Structure formats: structure tokens, C-alpha cells
Amino acid sequence: MDGQISESTVKEKTKCQSLSHNNVRDLVDSVDAFLFDCDGVIWKGDSLIDGVPETLETLRSMGKKLVFVTNNSRKSRSQYAKKFRSLGISVTVDEIFSSSFAAAMYLKVNDFPKDKKVYVIGEEGILEELELAGFTGLGGPEDGKKTALLRPNSFFQHDKSVGAVVVGLDQYINFYKLQYGTLCIRENPGCLFIATNQDSVGHLTDLQEWPGAGCMVAAMCGSTQKEPIVVGKPSTFMMDFLLKRFNIPTSRMCMVGDRLDTDILFGLNAGCRTLLVLSGVTSISTLEDLSNHIQPEYYSSQVSDIPQLLSAATL
Amino acid sequence: MDGQISESTVKEKTKCQSLSHNNVRDLVDSVDAFLFDCDGVIWKGDSLIDGVPETLETLRSMGKKLVFVTNNSRKSRSQYAKKFRSLGISVTVDEIFSSSFAAAMYLKVNDFPKDKKVYVIGEEGILEELELAGFTGLGGPEDGKKTALLRPNSFFQHDKSVGAVVVGLDQYINFYKLQYGTLCIRENPGCLFIATNQDSVGHLTDLQEWPGAGCMVAAMCGSTQKEPIVVGKPSTFMMDFLLKRFNIPTSRMCMVGDRLDTDILFGLNAGCRTLLVLSGVTSISTLEDLSNHIQPEYYSSQVSDIPQLLSAATL
Predict the structure, then answer these.
(1) Name one GO molecular function term (chains A, B) (predicted).
(2) Can you tell me whether residue A114 is helix, strand or coil?
(3) Given an 8 Å threshold on Cβ–Cβ distance, is B205 in contact with A175?
(4) Which fold has domain A13-71+234-314?
(5) A183-222 tens-digit pLDDT
(6) By C-alpha distance, which of A201, A198, A203 is closest to A211?
């Protein structure tokens, strides 16, 4: 019995390998596209992580397709492209898949009626993507200035033509928005409840973590007693969309991320190769903890290990 | 097989009886204390429900002990006593058990250190009860005016001496409070996470329902990935406290409420008699719906049915 246990433990351990000069070439050669998470992989808050430009350049020069997949819904794709440029990296809008874009695309592929409105508990990025997709968004930062006070005989009005509530990270969250979204979901027949993602916390500034969209989404689950449709990682909605657009089989994609429960799970759910980087929220001890059942194929300290190990492998 | 099914269905149905002149005397005679929920039973928003003063007077004249148990944490016990008085009902502070008081009592009976602070996501009632119990509260409505903006290099400071976060209904909920409470629970060793209650919505104004404490509590569960200690209904913490104070066995108490998942469950959990009134959030169709598994012993349209049926029984 003991022998069996230790054998299976060894097997478990060999499943997740440290990226090294022995295996990096195999990984890179067997992959046509690299999907990068952004926060904790490309940048941390507003600081670029070391060696990112060289890494992306190396992979591009090898003919690899690059896609940047982020659960952060605060920005639209064009706002993310601007952020990449400000950090000295040239990325096109088409290479970016943010959960704000995913929310708009979910409505589009599901033929959401153009005469219905979308109430947004979230920031500018969601509103911008909705508009680009031809939908009418309400709420967002604007409603962060409004108040809903509990006064006798006051009646809170909401728009009966709202057919979907999209909830993402919202630093302007307030009781007004919570009541607005709750009324739409509870009272407008067939109103959709869409979550950009459910990350509990995120490295939204350089120095610390903050409540993520999972906080606002949970609040709405608490008041409506309903579960949302999730369009960001680890849901495979974005992956299905990517597949159609690039026509690359998921087995020839590698998901690179810093989170086990979103990035790596997303990659595993979709049948991708997976690489965990330790430059974000996950530590080696969390990865190796017995309570963790999400095992990436490879792990490494940061993305710049890829070109460095490739050089070492060539020597 | 068919016969067995219909027999068990009949049994299920006879379990919950409509209060009538045939059974009201049995119920009242077998009970020493009536525990009343407030919202939807005594009042709706700021309007008294018909016949309440006469009902309470009748029961008092029969020597029954009356206790008012509310999950609404916005007010302290003395603020509730004032509300009762403004509605023309005389109730003492000792007869009121609000979830704001329960939160303070939970800390007291568990010897929460006086040199530790309590961060409050909630309103004045919680802060007042904490102070009366000798604890130092932070946050509350005051922090509703503060903002936490996601700026590069800004660092959100929190008090390391916070040993408990109490979360209740909060119409001034914002990102600042969510980050403050999340940091305390995630970073202060041993910090307690206490929920006054988890009601999804509540009739906070006369005309409509609003997100309840369950919304704010869920938000904190979402960001901390922890489950709270619940002190309000249906947790029996308040009941254990009541038992010690009044020395009346729960089998001789009757819980009267308008909610199945808090009031009636609370009564059933504690071994009380139970009476559901239909003057609040629960309709007869919800009660009789097959998906509902919480069955009170009796139901009636409103509390004033008690004296009316008693009179009819005497005739």
C-alpha cells in the first residue's frame, strides 16, 4: 500500500515540471500560439515585469501567434493596447481578449436584441466594448455618483427594457447600483446576469491586492439568489471564440498565467498546454500544497525564462 | 406505491395548518413567550401593520412574554424602542433582540479582547451596540464618504489591531470598505468575520424590497473566500442567548415571522412552535410550492388573526 501511495505521489509530482533547458524546446516547438494572462505575467499594476519585451520579440520571431487574455474588465481592448504601448510593447487590438470584450461578444453571439439595454456594474471598458458591438449600456462609473437612500415612500425606478446586467470589477460600487442591478434581474422577465469573471482579488495596484470582480459578482448573487453566466477565465467562452477566430487547435496553444483557479484551469478546461509563472499571485508553496488540485504542465519564475532557457538549450 | 406517495403527501400537508378558531387556543395556551420578527410582521417599512397594538395588548394581558427579534442591523435596540414608540407601541429595550445587538453579544460571550478593534461594514446600530458592550468600532457610515482609488504606488493602510469585521446591511457600501474589511480578514491573524445575517433582500421601505445584508456579506465572502459566523436568524446564537436570559424552554416559545428561510427556520432549528404570517415577503404559493421544504406549524394572514380567532373560539 505504501509503495502504491508513494508511486502515485511521484506521478503527481512529475505531472508539473519546472521549465528547464531540457524541456523548453519541446514546449515551444509543439505550440503555435501563446496565450498570456496580463496582470502578474506581463505587468504588475503599472510596472512591466522584467524581460517581457524580449520574450515577446523572441516568440514573434519564431512565428508564434501571441494573444493577451485578461479577466480585468476595467479597460476595453483599445485601452489595453494603449497601456501596452505606454509600457513600450507593440500589441494590436486583435491580439487582446479582455473580459469586457468577452461580455459584449457573449451578447453578440447569442443574438441579444439591439432594442434591449444592458445595465453595467463595472467600469468604462465594459461600456466601451458594448458600444463598439452596437449595444446600449447604462450605469457604469456614472452611477457611482448616484445615491439610493432608504426614505419612506421613495420608490426606486429602473428601466424595464434592461435585458442583461453585466457585472465586473467596480471601484465605484454602491447601494444604488446594487439595487438597480437586483431589480433588473429580479423583475425584468428573462434578464441575463453576466459576470465578466469571478476573481476574488487582483493586483490592481503595484503594491497590493484589492477586491476583484468576484466581490461585486458575489454581492449580486447574494441579493438575487441567482448564479451568473461567466464569460472570463476559467469559463471556456473566450476559448471557443478564440478557436473560431484563429483556427488553431487548443492542443497547439499554451496558456501562460499566474493564477491556478483562472488561468491554469482555463487552459486545462480547454485542452491547452499550460505554464504557470510565479511572478504574480501564486507561490511555489501554494502550487505544491496538498490542497491544490490544479496542476499546470510546467511552471517557471517568469516569462523571460522562456528565451533564456531557449538560449541555454541551444548552447 | 401510489397509495404510499399520496399518504405521505397528505401527511406533509397536514403538518402546516392554517391558524383557526379550532387550534388557536391550543397554540396560545401551550406557549409562554412569543418571538416576533419585525419587518413584515409588526411593520412594513415605516407603516404599522393593521391590528398589531391590539394583538400585543391581548397577549400581554394573558401573561405572555413578548420578544422582538429582527435581523435588520441598521438600528440599535434603543433606536428600535424609539421606532416602536413612534408607531404607538410601548416596548422596552430588553424585549428587543436585533442582529446588531447579537453581533456585540457574540463578541462578549466569546471574550473578544477589549484592546482589539472591530471594523464595521454596516450602519449606526452596530457601532452603537458595540460601544454599549465596551468595544471599539471603526468604519460604519463614516467610511461611506471615503474613497479608495486605484492609483499607481498608492498603498491602502488598515489597522492591524482590528480583530473582527462585522458585516450587516449597509446603504453606504463602497470599495473603500470592501478593501478595508478584506485586508483585515486576509491579513490580520485570527481576525473574525461576523455577519449580522444573510437575508438576500428586505422590505426596507414601504414600497419595495432592497438588497439585504446577504448582499454585503456575499461581497466579503467573494473577496476573502471565507465563510462568516452568522449571529442573526436562522443561526441559533440569539436563541441560546434568549434561553439563558429568560429561562423559558424553546418548546414553550412561538416564533412568528414572515420569512421561511430565516424566521421559520430559526424557530424550527431551535425547537420552537412556529407561525408564518403572510403580511411580509412570503406568499401562500411560495409556502405551498413543492420546492419549499421549510414548513411552519401554522400560517395565517397577519398577527391580528390571533386575537380575532381567540375571540371567535371563545364565542
Answers:
(1) metal ion binding
(2) coil
(3) no
(4) Rossmann fold (3.40.50)
(5) 999 999 999 999 999 999 988 887 889 999 999 999 999 9
(6) A201
